[in-house]
Design brief:
Rossmann fold; 4-stranded antiparallel beta sheet; 10 helices; 36% helix; globular
Length: 234
């Protein structure tokens, strides 16, 4: 049984359909990546898992359906979300932004703060700094840290490297790997940067115009023309 299963998922914004019969599975303790060009539907897929879009199909976590649940209930089921462009409170401190993520895991605040600070020591050093004054890499660390404050078993991370320098991308990759290896998190990332995704994930799903065009291990897809076509067209 897959840890997360998405089956024949269709997602809609008003009358516009953004995802078409998308199916995927994620095993416990795995890092997978959803890759594709801008506008492929990657963020919509994660939003749908979080209950933020109108959908048909099924989404199951440990064989329990998440369909029809609100976002807060999905977080309580053990799903953490670090959305694209951070969605932080810009005039609140790093510490206060992290504490916002703890509303469903109040009993674990001290433990989770210690975990976040161990992964990202810079956040402890700058705990009183407003996030509006931070670099893009630091804000991404706050976003990931805030998701960890929910005590997630499944972590969804949308475009973790967008706009970041290569050195910071390496730091983010190392942190995500530690979240899997040391914290036992199962991780789904979306990425436009296919090279980054292939250094981090074990398996890839290639999304194009709301359709899954290819799937497989990194080695299977590394030279697959469908990966190139998803970015540059036929």
């Amino acid at each position: 049984m897959a840890f997360l299963e998405v089956a024949k998922l269709n997602a809609f914004y008003g009358k516009a359909q953004a995802l078409h019969d998308v199916s995927l599975t994620v095993n416990a303790g795995e890092i997978i990546a959803i890759v594709g060009a801008n506008g492929a539907g990657k963020s919509t897929l994660l939003d749908s898992i979080m209950g933020l879009t109108r959908i048909s199909g099924d989404i199951r976590l440990e064989d329990q359906s998440l369909v029809g649940l609100g976002s807060a209930a999905i977080v309580k089921k053990g799903v953490g979300y670090a959305p694209e462009r951070f969605n932080l409170f810009p005039y609140m401190s790093v510490r206060d932004n992290l504490l916002v993520g703890a509303y469903t895991a109040r009993d674990d605040i001290r433990k989770n703060l210690a975990t976040v600070h161990k992964l990202f020591p810079r956040l402890e050093e700058r705990k009183n700094q407003e996030t509006s004054t931070q670099s893009g890499g630091e804000r991404q660390m706050v976003s990931l840290g805030r998701a960890l404050m929910t005590s997630p078993r499944l972590l969804l991370v949308d475009e973790p490297t967008i706009g970041l320098a290569p050195k910071i991308c390496v730091e983010i990759a190392e942190a995500l790997t530690k979240m899997r290896d040391e914290l036992g998190a199962t991780i789904v990332i979306t990425e436009q940067n296919a090279n980054f995704a292939m250094t981090l994930a074990e398996r890839l799903y290639v999304l194009e115009s709301g359709h899954i065009k290819a799937q497989g291990t990194v080695d299977e897809l590394r030279n697959d023309k469908r990966l190139t076509e998803a970015y540059f067209g036929h």
